[in-house]
Design goal:
The protein is an alpha+beta fold. It has 2 helices and 12 strands. The N and C termini lie far apart (about 130 Å).
């Protein structure tokens, strides 16, 4: 049979055979190299992601701690501003003033009322406009235009009656103001490594801020100098230091006089 008489299928066989010889597959070594490169790339991506996540977590923890410091300082400062509320000029605002502890009386809830009738000397039951929800044992002030007198509640307040622990020593006129006071104390509680700022109201203590390295209280008089007498304090500077982040916050509070 001559080449001219070959069928079309017979003529295409050598061409298909040459195409198969030129086709090159992937060897096992090349596959292993590709897998190794992919593993390195994946490991690097995971490491980078972990480092970024750790840094992001650290930044978030720092922001949270700083925010807690600010909020705690806001609470302390807002209550210090109430120190002496209801007291007249010359009365002692602070019962204790140390570098890491302060104690004072303040009307935290704005609770006040007035007498509705004349109160004679030696009386314990006071007719008032509204004495409901005033708890037994709380301190209170009866304030005339001349001065304020301390006393304590002998029983829970009623709608129109407050009962005093000690009988009155003077006569009081209608419209005499009565203020309910809270005994407030802030102090630094030391522990191993870090400290906690404690807030105590009427004998009940709770932690306001934890993980502190310190707190400092400074008391100033009208001349800007350090006040040694509680009656001379017109301004208090509060400084707190965070333990982990080392953030320091300081604020000055004007005291009512």
């Amino acid at each position: 049979m001559t080449p001219a008489t070959l069928s079309d299928s017979q003529q295409t066989k050598p061409i298909r055979a040459r195409w198969c010889l030129n086709t090159r597959g992937v060897s096992l070594i090349e596959l292993l190299i590709a897998l190794a490169i992919s593993s390195v790339a994946i490991a690097a991506a995971i490491q980078t992601s972990a480092a970024y996540g750790s840094r992001l977590s650290s930044q978030h923890a720092t922001m949270t701690a700083n925010q807690e410091l600010r909020l705690g300082l806001d609470v302390l400062c807002s209550e210090l501003r109430l120190a002496g509320g209801g007291l007249l000029s010359g009365d002692t605002v602070f019962s204790k003033m140390e570098v890491d502890e302060v104690e004072f009386f303040a009307n935290l809830n704005g609770s006040s009322t007035i007498l509705t009738q004349i109160v004679e000397v030696g009386r314990q039951d006071l007719p008032v406009e509204d004495g409901a929800d005033w708890p037994k044992g709380k301190q209170l002030l009866l304030c005339t235009a001349a001065h304020c007198v301390w006393n304590r509640l002998a029983a829970d307040g009623r709608k129109q009656t407050l009962t005093l622990m000690t009988p009155t020593f003077e006569q009081y006129q209608p419209k005499t103001a009565i203020f309910l006071l809270n005994r407030v104390r802030y102090y630094l509680k030391r522990a191993e490594g870090t400290h906690r700022l404690m807030r105590e109201v009427d004998g009940v203590a709770s932690t306001l801020l934890s993980d502190l390295s310190g707190m400092q209280l400074q008391y100033f008089n009208k001349s800007g100098g350090i006040a040694n007498d509680a009656r001379d304090v017109v301004r208090v500077r509060v400084t707190i230091q965070g333990a982990r982040q080392g953030m320091n916050l300081s604020r000055d509070i004007a005291i009512r006089m």
